[in-house]
Structures are given as C-alpha cells and as structure tokens.
Amino acid sequence: MKQTKTVGTAARKTRIRITDTTLRDAHQSLWATRLRTDDILAIAEAVDQAGYYSLECWGGATFDVCMRFLRENPWERLRKIKAVCKNTPLQMLLRGQNLLGYKHYPDDVVERFVALACENGMDIFRVFDALNDPRNLEKAISSVKKYGGHAQGTISYTTSPVHTVESFVQLAKQMESMGIDSLCIKDMAGIMTPAEASTLVGALVKSIKVPVQVHSHMTSGMAAAMYLSAVKAGAGAVDTAISTMSSFSSQPPTETMAAIFEAEGYDTNLDHAKLAEINAYFRGLKKDRAPRTTATEPVDAGVLEHKIPGGMISNLRSQLDQQGALDRLQEVMDELPKTRADMGYPPLVTPTSQIVGIQSVLNVLQGRYKMVTQETKNYVKGLYGRAPAPINPKVAKKILGGEKPITCRPADLLKPGLAEAANQLEPKLVQKEEDILSYCLFPEVALGYFKWRAQPEGQRDPIPADLERQPAPAGTPAPAPAPAADESTERFAEIGQLVAELASRLGMTAGSVPAVPLPKKSAPAPEAAPAPAAEKPDEVSGPTVNAPFNGTFFRSDGPGKPELAQEGGAVKAGDPVCVIEAMKMFNPIKADKPLTVVKFLVKHGDNVAKGQPLAVVKY
Ligand code: CO
After folding, report:
1. How many angstroms separate the alpha carbon of residue 72 from the centre of ligand 1?
2. Which of the following CATH numbers is that of domain 16-289: 3.40.640.10, 3.40.980.10, 3.30.565.10, 3.20.20.70?
3. Are the CB atoms for 110 and 143 separated by under 8 Å?
4. Taking a C-beta distance cutoff of 8 angstroms, is the pair 333, 306 a contact?
5. Taking a C-beta distance cutoff of 8 angstroms, is the pair 63, 74 a contact?
6. Whole-angstrom Cα distance, residue 320 to residue 532?
7. Secondary structure letter of residue 13 according to DSSP
8. How far is the CA of 223 from the centre of ligand 1 (A)?
C-alpha cells in the first residue's frame, strides 16, 4: 500500500485514496449532525458507486444525536447503510477508551461495542485519544483487530513546545507496534500548514510501514494546500466532503481536490458524474437540514494566530453570554493558552477542549483556579490519561490538595460495566443487546429514546429535531444558534457525570467479552431523586449558600446518584452541598466551613441566577 512514485506517461498513475466524510464529519461540522438515516439512504447507492476509498458515516456525534434529536437507533442506521453500500468500506471515528462518549468506559464495554460495530458492518475504525496517550488507544485497537476490523491509529495534531515531529513519530511507532493497519493525522483545528505537513508526513513515511492518511478542516482555509503537500510527501489518502457539504469548518471539497490531484498526475478513482449527482442531492437537501441561523464566515483567519479551534470560540462565546459576561471574551481568549499550558498542553479536541475552555472561563470570571470543575480535577488527577507535558505543579497542588494523581492506565480502575448496565434497564425497554451498549454510552439520552420508542406508533411525542425547525410563534426571540459541531465543540453534557465512579482496581479479564444477556428481572430505571418542594426563603432565616453563577441547581451529581446533603444534615468544610450545572459542567458548590443545611430553597433541576440563595444553613 505504500506510495511509489511513477515516472512517464505509460506508467500506472499513483492512486490517491479519498475518504468521503459527507455522511459524518461534514454534516456534524455544518448541519449540527442533523442528517437523518433516510436522507443518507436516498443517496447511498450513488455514494457507494462514486469510487471513494471509504465512507465515514458513523461515530463522532452521530450516535448521540441519532437518539437525542432524531429518535433513531444508530445501530439500525449502520445496518441500513451497510445493506446499500456493498462496494465501499464503511468507516467510523472512535474516541479510544471514550468510544463515542466523553469519559472512559470499562474494557468490557469497549470490546463489546467494537464487536457489535464489526458485526453490524463497520470496516474501518479511526481510533484517537484527545491526549495522544497510547494507553487509552490499546483496548480499542486490539478489539478492532480481534473482531476483524481495520484499525487506523490516529495522531491528534496540535502545536506546542512538547509536540514535535519526533514526538509524533514516536507515537506512530507505538501504535504500529499495537498492530494498526494505517495511520491518520487528525488536524481537527485545521491549523497544519503545508510546510508542516510535508515535514511530518515525510518523517512518518520514513519511520513506519503502514499507509498515512490526512484529515483536516477548512476552518483557516489552509487544508486544500496542506493536503497537496501531504500527498507529495507520501500520504496516500485524504478526507474530503462533497462540495455543498465542504469548506467552512468542514473538509475540503471532493471535486476540487480531485481536480487538483488529477492535474498533478494522480489517479483518484472518482467518477465525476456521480460526484455531480451526489452534490445536486445535497444542494437540494440544504434548505431542510442546514441550521437556519448559521452565519459562518467562510474562513476564520483568527485561527491562524491563536490556534484555537473555530467552533470552540463560538462555544465560549455562548457560555459567556449565558453568564451575562460576553464583554470578557478577549480575556478568556488570552487566558486559554495559559490554562492549556498549566494543563500540560493537551490537544484541544473533545473532551479536553471543553475541560480547558470551561476552566479558562471560570479562571476569568471567578479568579484563577478559585473554582475548579470536577472534570479539571479529574484531568489533573490523571483520570483522562497522561498529559503531553507535566501539569504545572503549583496548579496541581492547588487543585488536588493532598490527593495523589494516578499513574496507571485510567481504565484499569474501572469495574466491568455491561452486566450492571443491563441490570439497570427495564426489560420492556430493551430490544437487542446493542441497546445496552447505547445505554452504557449515553444513559439518559438512550433511556429517553427507549421510552419514546416504547410508545405506540402514531402516539409518540414529536421528534426533537422536528420541533427545532418549526417556525417560532410571532413575538418569540430568535432561536439560539445551532450548536457548533466540530468534534472539539460537540455536546458534552455527560462529561460531568461519571468519571467519579472510578473505584477499585480490577485485573483485566482475559478472553472475549461475551454477549450481554438482556435484563430479566424488573429494575427501576435510575432517575434523579425528587427534591422536596421549595419553600419561600423568608419562612426560614439565617445565612445562605448562594449560586456563584447562573445555571441549573441539582441536589446530586448525576442521575441516580444520592443527594449530596440532606436538610438537617451536617456538611464538612470542603464537601459539596449541591451542584450547579453551568456551561455543561457539573460544578460542586462546597461548604466553606462546617455547616448544617436548614432548608433548601430551590428545587432539583431549577434554573438559578447568580447570587440567588440556594439553601439556608447554620454554622
Ligand atoms: Co474532523
């Protein structure tokens, strides 16, 4: 598969393999992942005949969005695409030990997820880790190999003092020793210059035997030139999207890249008439699927300077807006590289982009590390993996106090998860084993979908994605912009919930993870405990614990978790009284000194404003 340059017109041209991202990354980047299975099936046959090397059509945010907004079963989508696309391998994006979620899953969940994905038709697994920690890639890669898939190892590309060509080559070699079939350079922010591509790809093709592919985004406008440079340096494959679904924060256009490569004497294997047919289809679909409020600049030149992924800035902007602090955006932009340096220069991609982004916002609004999210603490503790560079020791001490960071692979601390997940689900909601995996990844979202699915057809609640597109009644404010949806900015509501469940170290089980039996005994679905009705603040007097910012009030730190404090109960200094979810993060509100909660003043799940009293307490 290695590139060999040919000379002379009679010689066979070098083939450049084109991966089509239209059915995954492109609509995730431009259309908030709202492509539906029927939209895909209507064009799938033409796509399958266009001559692509592979079709990226699953993974990333598609799985979550299918269930949450489209009320579709993502596994069913995979089977339906596979039934039509018989010529072209299907490809997915997998976040290593995080699978498609925002936290580490136990090994049994990772292995069984990969096994079922293979069984249902997935061929190529692009496996990445936000920190480039090889320990977070091992289990996913070995599972892909075990169940007969093509394992594509990934370098999450970023720039920093510790991210050198040598460090990336070293990582590639480590992944090669794990048995990867190919390697992808994933430039999620679209910041790799043509010169950097030439150097990095050149070094990689000299050092590893597997073929190299390049993935980028047109955010800064450089990706098309970068691809050509990468190919000339020996990359054999690139990712593109059909022109209507390309550019902006999506991939470079397929038709343009094909024209460039063909003019350079390469063979792309693409059928131009089919490409035109496919593009006409998506052009027609645009009015129904593109977010109505998107007003994206074609090129975000700022990315070239600050190297912060474009989608991440729009995310920060909306978070600041929610806090009534939009005027502090520039301060946050200045703080972000400092927080990232403190954190050991993680590449900014899900979930590290959210962790660093939100901590930067808090550092500006509350003072540096005065308030720390549970995710930041977990990150500093090593629960997401090893940071590329050591974490600033002063910051680590401030955040962890006396606690020691872990040194093992984070997933080694996780108990097997499948049996417990199966046990938590009501049997009547579960149709197939795949439902248990969906539940492991997105417990609340999957439950919501399962309950919707269990309603009699014809009496089901409206589909959330349909509600989004209904015209607003006169007088209502314009809808919020659709969420920016690059991998670095997609939804991450689950991020705050479950990393804390890391508990007892367990040995890895050898052999295959068997199929999970469907739940038999009736067990109630885990739901947040109802809070007692709120009473007027003036009925009880005394000092109060107040909301430090706008957000949603919770008595527990996750669905099914016990309440953190009871009325009449004592809380030690430093222990949480309640949680405020803001900016998609669960922020524990801690007692500054020992106290007793007299009365909670707000209900679990209520919105609260900055400064609003949450509970009357006694010191
Ligand atoms: Co991407």
Report:
1. 23
2. 3.20.20.70
3. yes
4. yes
5. yes
6. 31
7. P
8. 12
Q: Which residues contact 21 (CB under 8 A, 6 or more apart)?
A: 56, 215, 239, 240, 241, 250, 251
- The helix/strand count (H/E) of the chain reads as 21, 16
Determine the distance separating the centroid of ligand 1 and the alpha carbon of 231, expressed in angstroms.
18
Q: What are phi and psi of 488, to 5 degrees?
A: -80, -10
Q: Which CATH architecture fits 308-413?
A: Orthogonal Bundle (1.10)
Q: Would you say 306 and 193 are in contact if contact means Cβ atoms under 8 Å apart?
A: no
Q: Which of 45-49, 298-302, 325-329 has the lowest mean pLDDT?
A: 298-302
Q: Quick: pLDDT tens for 477-524.
A: 444 333 333 433 333 332 222 222 222 222 222 345 667 777 654 444
The boundaries of every CATH 2.40.50.100 domain in the chain are 544-618
| 60 CA to centre of ligand 1 in angstroms | 9
pTM recorded for the entire structure: 0.80
What pLDDT is attached to residue 420?
96
Rounded to an integer, what distance in angstroms lies between the CA atom of residue 214 and that of residue 484?
A: 22
Ligand 1 centroid–CA 152 distance in Å is 15
Helix (H, G, I), strand (E, B) or coil at 590: strand
Q: Which CATH class is domain 544-618?
A: mainly beta
Compute, in angstroms, the gap from residue 381 CA to the centroid of ligand 1.
Answer: 28
